[in-house]
Amino acid sequence: MEIKDISKIKKKLLETAETLFSDKGYNGTSIREIARAADVNLALVNYHFGSKENLYLTIFQRRFLAYQNALLKMDQNQGAAKKLDSFLDIYGSFIDTHRNFHRLLSRELTLLHQSAIKEVITNGTHKNFDLVKSIILDGIQSGIFRKVNVDLVALNIIAFVPRVFSGSPFIDDLFKSQNSPLDNKETLSTQLKEYFYAILSK
Fold this sequence. Notes:
Blueprint: H1 6-24, H2 31-38, H3 42-49, H4 52-71, H5 80-97, H6 99-109, H7 115-141, H8 150-165, H9 169-177, H10 185-200
Helix pairs in contact: 1-2, 1-4, 1-6, 3-4, 4-7, 5-7, 5-10, 7-8, 8-10
């Protein structure tokens, strides 16, 4: 059944393409395959995006914008510890909810073959890194956190959280084989916070 509403067509194409690109890679996925999987006319893909390259770029722009909008909901007046807590909730939830995109992002980070996508990823990553650094620095200055290597801890947070929330088969199998309580996402979130607080707390 072909979807009539234009915004719904565009959304379905983006979500279908994201899934296929994450499973098969950019070069392994064709526009025709995306249109068929989304159950829309091939001409509509070109109408909405113009090319496969632009469709791919739009996926990244869409997800990074959604993530930045989610971060805007953080209460900027709360203390550093609460702010870090909020950040970890938003960051972990976003990765867990959009696992296909994170797999796509992880693959693209090893390539960065398109300059437009490189710019989107670089800008988004820098904003994330700078936000975490500002939270840690605020905590140190207010006496809540101890003095640490801010860049190293921020990098640890930015790089480590995706590893455990991305649904990696290796991580999932590791938790399950060890009967780890971290196999539960809620427990995992709590333990991650305690882990980072242990690094930062006085």
